[in-house]
Structure formats: structure tokens, C-alpha cells
Amino acid sequence: MEKKLFALLESYYDEMVEVRRFLHQNPELSFEEVETPAYIAEFHKKLGHDVKTGVGGRGVTAVLKGGIEGPVIALRADFDALPIHEETGLPFASKVAGVMHACGHDGHTATLLYLAKALNAIQEDLPGTVVFIHQHAEEYAPGGAIDMIHDGCLDNVDVIFGTHLWATVPYGTVQYKRGPMMSAADRFEIDIVGKGGHGGTPHLTKDAIVIGSQLVTNIQQLVSRRVDPVEPAVVSIGSFVADNAFNVIADSAKIVGTVRTFNDDIRDMLEQELKRITMSTCEGAGADAHFHYSRGYPAVVNHESEAVFLAECASDIPDVAVTEEMKPMMGAEDFARYLEKVKGSFFFTGAQHPDWDVAYPHHHPKFDIDERAMLVAAKVMGKAVLDYEKTAVS
Prior knowledge:
- By secondary structure, the chain is an alpha/beta fold.
- The protein has 11 helices and 16 strands.
- The longest helix is centred in the C-terminal third of the chain and has 21 residues, at about 265-285.
């Protein structure tokens, strides 16, 4: 059965690449996806799957019932793009100005579509039911997963698996992680309201830039002096804006940043401390402040048995040269929301081409993937579907 599935996937590889490149040329931003979900739905309908569109807004689910009784296994791929102007120079570069698949979601979608086609071809001998979850809006919190779950995409699902093609990990490598894998990610915004004035009379002002600079310095002490050194946490300022003429003292400034954590108690503490430091710093300088904190995605925490199971699946595939347990990372993924509801595991599939001089990171305008990684990812998830029922996973 496994050999037949893998042979089918290999026979579909050229089509898989063609679809990935079509999607790459036609990217759509988070919460603005229209043509992509329509394309996905039509693909599954042609296979005869039970298809539901508009799940959680713009998501698509498709169900394939195997000929043999077994578990209900969900497989997830995301399909949104990013507001980035592509600079790859590829012949299939984005046709949409300022929008690009710079995170591999085009590859995720093509992988899942052709895994669905291969599993469909062996439907009579397939154990259990496979739910294909095509998720919109992974890139922009609150993300698409939470509403898709609310609409029932996980109803009756026993386990869920998903992968991310990872362009800075060599092709032929699969990375897994037991337990915490990717951090929670939150966003904060601070508006400082001072008193502007002439650059030559600073004593008559409440300089929002000086106050903001002091605040940034104070914030940088949060992790080093409030968080246990053995607990991972990051507080980063991504934007500090106070746009004025050269001889004008700013009356306002805006600071935007992110908080990354694994521990919920530390997450709560950092939110409270950020607000306290913001208000006290601004009050001490005679300025006002408005503080807003937005909870983003929770941490991706894999279920141990399922993570080990996926690692075993990967290790048995000839295309996989290395299967390794990775360190936790401070990137975020709303696959975390599925793992809060059902058991499962997320993993990385190496997509760095061996001939590249530079492997551009995710969200870079020159980002690309080694397309052979799609076939590896499909085989790992396909083997997981075939083997899950007969493996003692608790």
C-alpha cells in the first residue's frame, strides 16, 4: 500500500510543481482570499470528495472516506500570502504587485492537494477517514484556524498532522519536536501623547521622542530582570514612529512590538509589566499614554506520542536523509489552535536546495523553496495516514 501511494505521488510530482507555481503567480492576502479557495474546492470536487467552502470565513475542508474502518485523521495546509513585493526573478514570480508567497504556503497547498489525489486513488484500501483542512489567513492574527474550528473542521477528528516547508533547513531533512515547538506571539501598541513645540524651546515641551526612547530602554530590561533566565521569552520593538520636521519637537509617537513566550504565566506577567512600565514612564515625564495588547497565537505544543510517531514515519522514507529533533523556536503558527483541541503534531520539512549560495529566510522578497520538498512532505503525511491506525499511539 505504501509503495503504491509513494509511486502515485511521484507520478504526480510534475503536476504538483505546476500547481505550486500557478498558486505562486496568483497570491492572495490573509482574509482576502477568493480565487485560491475556489481553486482548492474545485480540485477536491473533481476527486469526488465531500467539500465544504466558506469554513470559518474563507477556508475549505474536504473529506475522503476510506474503504476500511479506522480513525479520522486531519491534515492541514495554509494558503494565504504576504504583503511583500517579490524580488526572486523567477519565471513564475507573483503577478500581483506587492503580494507574494514568501512563506511556502503555495507549496503546502500543492502538497496537500496531490496527497489527496493519491489517497483518493487507493480509497478502497484506505483505513479510516481523511479530512483535508485548507486554511486561510495563517499569516495575520487572529488567523483562520480559530474560526474554522468554530465552524466544525475538527468535528469527530481523532488526530491532526501538518508540516511547514522550511527553506533554511536542507532538503532531505525532517525536523520534529516533542512538546513545545513554536512560541506564542502577541502584539502591543503604545501611543505616547506629549506636548510638541519648537526645536529651540525644548523646555516648553513634553518630547514624545525622548520619552519613547526612555520607554524602549526600560522595556528592554523586562526579559533580563523579570523573567527566569531558564524560561524563553522575547520582547522586541518593531516600529517607533514620530514623523516631524527637523526643527519640531514631537508631540506624539507610536511604538509597536511583539512578545514571544511559551509559559502562560510569563505571558500574563509580561503583558502586565509592559503596561505598568509604559504608564509609569510616561507619567514620570508628564505625558499621557495609550496601551493596547493583543493576544495572538498560542504556543505550538505537539503531543509527544504523535511527534515520535511522525519522526518514525519520516525515518522510514528513502528521500529523508536526516530526521532530527529540533530546538524550540520563537516563530509562531496558528496550527497551535488545532493542537489545543485534538492530539497531533506539526513538523518541518527541509526545503533548502543544495545548490543555493544563499537560503533566503521566510518572509524575504527573494524567498524560494526546493520543490522536491513537497514530495517529501506528502510522503511523510501519507505514511502517517496509512500507519496511524496500526500504531499504538495513545
